[in-house]
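Hi support team,

I've been running sequence recovery on a batch of backbones for a student project. Most finish fine, but this one hangs at about 90% for roughly twenty minutes before it completes. I'm not sure whether the input is malformed or the queue is just slow. I've pasted the structure tokens below so you can try to reproduce it. Let me know if you need the job ID as well.

Thanks,
M.K.
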């Protein structure tokens, strides 16, 4: 190939590379602007948010802190903001209902876990398992009290030891035989022990709420073994529905 042809080929290749780089730059800038717009929209919604659900004791400042964390991790921003938008929609609209479906409550729990992930290092051991029988008869029936998952999940991220080499959070969400189960385990931080939190307002309020709604058809267990805290919630929705039908 002659020098002229080589030069022409090189120029063509360089031009192609410049076009690709320009395209990627424009796409990156577009994603950044989309994330920034989504951030501002959500922040405005949170600023005007007035939550009157005392049972769940949700604090809008929690979401502001999450937004600030998201903003500092640009590569995760758009994904995390999308999950946060789903959580806010659920709190604002779905939680106003007396009951929601297990499907929607489980989706809420998974979104909540995703936006909490941004608080921890990518190397942190966060193990989340979902074992759901989507063909279960009651999976899409409105029998779940909304926001029933929030206390156990938030406590794990709030009180877990995030610094030691063997730190972990393990969350298992199940729906089998029309029984909803949520199990959360984590290594406790010595500075902020869940021994105190387990007797606090949030856990007590959750247990009171469960007792009022589900009576004898739920079980909430909290166990501390050495420095590992485990909370396990089970709600038998089949028994709960049978009681509702008998009372109606």
């Amino acid at each position: 190939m002659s020098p002229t042809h080589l030069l022409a080929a090189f120029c063509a290749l360089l031009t192609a590379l410049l076009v690709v780089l320009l395209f990627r730059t424009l796409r990156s800038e577009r994603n950044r602007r989309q994330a920034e717009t989504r951030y501002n929209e959500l922040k405005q919604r949170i600023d005007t948010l007035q939550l009157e659900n005392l049972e769940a004791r949700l604090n809008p400042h929690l979401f502001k802190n999450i937004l600030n964390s998201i903003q500092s991790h640009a590569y995760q921003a758009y994904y995390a903001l999308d999950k946060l938008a789903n959580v806010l929609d659920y709190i604002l609209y779905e939680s106003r209902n007396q009951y929601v479906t297990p499907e929607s409550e489980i989706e809420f729990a998974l979104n909540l876990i995703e936006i909490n992930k941004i608080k921890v290092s990518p190397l942190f051991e966060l193990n989340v398992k979902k074992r759901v029988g989507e063909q279960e008869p009651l999976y899409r029936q409105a029998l779940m009290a909304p926001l029933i998952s929030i206390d156990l999940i938030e406590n794990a991220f709030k009180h877990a030891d995030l610094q030691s080499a063997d730190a972990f959070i393990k969350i298992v969400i199940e729906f089998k035989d029309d029984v909803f189960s949520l199990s959360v385990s984590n290594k406790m931080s010595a500075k902020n022990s869940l021994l105190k939190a387990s007797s606090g307002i949030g856990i007590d309020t959750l247990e009171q709420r469960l007792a009022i709604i589900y009576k004898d058809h739920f079980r909430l267990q909290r166990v501390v073994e050495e420095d590992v805290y485990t909370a396990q919630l089970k709600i038998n929705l089949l028994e709960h529905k049978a009681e509702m039908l008998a009372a109606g």
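--
Follow-up from support: It reproduced on our side and the slowdown came from queue contention, not your input. The beta strands are 125-132, 168-176, 179-187, 218-225, 228-236. No action needed from you.
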